[in-house]
Design goal:
Length: about 230
């Protein structure tokens, strides 16, 4: 379908208000905000820039369900700034597990009693899938996998940290395999390290995004402005 999208984010206070709704929906046990904040800081401190880039600025981006860090990098040879998202890393095995669990979730329907608690329902279903397939994940490994599943289902998939960054005003994607660009309040237009790997993945994301925003999307109009 060749999807593209643009998201114009509201002011910081409004963004916080939107995500308060998500926070209030969580009735099951999860890491508290102080813990996710500390995890984000740890990610930030452990980060090492890719070769040829040096760090200009860094800051944690966290919320009730998010722990990540943002790094503004500069490449002297390219004379370019870049926006680098740093999240809990997944091994190839864990990435396959996350993808498999997300696929299997559709076979574990939500009961009417669980509709008001999306996070609690999701966590129960993830736990059931892990138990059914006798997969044991504990501590940091469990929360890391659960975080990436939450991102792909309840939240905003690959752009979740961007949506939670109060410094971002616009998020734009012009196609699969093309880096997403953001408009940063301090550094203006920046290329990110975030991409959608395939047209299928991007199309699926844009359709879900359009549904969340109450927008119409068709093959004739494959672009969504999620303002």
């Amino acid at each position: 379908m060749g999807s593209r999208f643009t998201i114009k984010l509201p002011k910081k206070k409004q963004v916080a208000g939107v995500f308060e709704i998500i926070k209030r929906s969580a009735k099951s046990e999860w890491l508290d905000e102080e813990t996710t904040k500390n995890l984000s800081k740890k990610l930030m401190e452990d980060f090492k820039p890719p070769n040829g880039w040096f760090e200009v600025e860094k800051y944690p981006v966290s919320s009730r369900f998010v722990f990540s860090s943002i790094h503004i990098l500069y490449n002297e040879n390219l004379n370019e700034f870049s926006y680098f998202v740093n999240e809990p890393p997944l091994s190839e095995e864990d990435l396959r597990l996350v993808k498999e669990i997300v696929k299997k979730l559709e076979f574990y329907p939500i009961s009417p009693q669980e509709i008001g608690d999306k996070f609690g329902a999701l966590r129960k279903k993830v736990n059931r899938i892990l138990d059914d397939f006798r997969i044991k994940k504990e501590g940091a490994d469990y929360y890391k996998i659960l975080y990436h599943i939450i991102k792909r289902t309840i939240l905003y998939d690959r752009i979740t940290p961007l949506m939670f960054d109060p410094n971002i005003e616009d998020i734009s994607c012009n196609g699969a395999g093309i880096p997403i660009y953001v408009f940063h309040r301090k550094y203006t237009n920046l290329r990110t390290n975030v991409t959608f790997e395939s047209e299928e993945e991007l199309d699926s994301f844009v359709i879900n995004l359009a549904q969340k925003c109450g927008k119409h999307l068709s093959i004739a109009e494959p672009m969504v402005d999620a303002t």
